[in-house]
Specification:
Structural class: alpha+beta
Helix content: 10-25%
Strand order of the largest sheet: 1-6-7-5
Radius of gyration: 20 Å
Number of domains: 2
CATH class of the largest domain: Mainly Alpha
Number of helices: 6
Bound molecules: zinc ion
Distance between the termini: 54 Å
């Protein structure tokens, strides 16, 4: 039960919409989380790159980058505090009147990357003239792939990040779709990637950063072939790949 809501920076609609409501469901699509109240209201949290929602029995005082804070009552009446923090400020909070509004909003995004099908990815990549890495980061094509996971998926699929998306062969796209699903499933299972201070909803650090094969490893030897990994900026984002294991052509 949300007892008091959003009392700091974002006081307003989000507060009025969910106060006194029981949290009925939590939904996720790509990098967005939806908290659905039993009165029909929805709080949509855009997690973006560094946004996080944490529920604890007590929030530490003076915690940096906290933009909103809610008081919750647990099933046995225990008090908890939920905070939304976002150091890089790419995220945000939006109050929506109903699940129907949420569905319409999410329909504008691409399908969720964790379950993306080859056919959809094929269609989406065919329609863009960008480099495949940039296309993967576009949340309107596929929702939920960030910079780390784009690099990791391209490495596993053996595709160089600079190849133009519409030039990929069906077999490459099939490998890429499988790699995206695998990388995200593994990352979710290990609690995500903690690069600086990322924590999950229970305040725990992720463990996936120890499993990165290319991201953050520019200049280091490829785990598969020993070649030095290359790094560049692509679409404004740091990109790392193996010039030997990843190619533009189908192999
Ligand atoms: Zn290699």
């Amino acid at each position: 039960m949300l007892e008091r809501g959003a009392e700091s920076a974002k006081r307003g609609a989000a507060d009025l919409l969910l106060r006194g409501q029981r949290i009925e469901r939590l939904l996720r699509h790509g990098k967005q989380l939806a908290i659905v109240g039993d009165g029909g209201g929805v709080l949509c949290v855009q997690l973006g790159m560094t946004g996080r929602v944490v529920v604890r029995s007590e929030a530490p005082r003076g915690e940096p980058h906290v933009h909103a804070r809610w008081e919750l009552l647990g099933p046995r009446g225990e008090r908890k505090v939920m905070t939304f923090a976002d150091p890089r400020r790419f995220g945000g909070l939006t109050a929506l009147a109903s699940s129907t509004v949420l569905s319409a909003r999410w329909a504008e995004l691409g399908p969720d990357a964790a379950t993306v099908e080859t056919a959809h990815l094929m269609q989406a990549l065919k329609e863009t003239r960008r480099a495949v890495k940039a296309a993967l980061l576009d949340q309107n094509l596929v929702a939920g792939i960030g910079n780390i996971y784009a690099d990791e998926a391209l490495f596993r699929a053996g595709i160089t990040p600079r190849v133009l998306a519409h030039r990929l062969r069906p077999r490459q796209v099939e490998r890429l779709a499988a790699a995206v699903r695998e990388v995200l499933a593994a990352a979710i299972a290990s609690g995500g990637s903690s690069l600086r201070d990322y924590v999950d909803a229970n305040g725990q650090q992720g463990g996936y950063q120890t499993l990165h094969l290319v991201y953050g490893r520019e200049g280091e030897p490829c785990h598969t072939c020993g070649t030095r990994l290359r790094g560049t900026r692509l679409g404004g984002r740091q990109t790392v790949w193996c010039p030997c294991c990843q190619s533009a052509r189908d192999t």
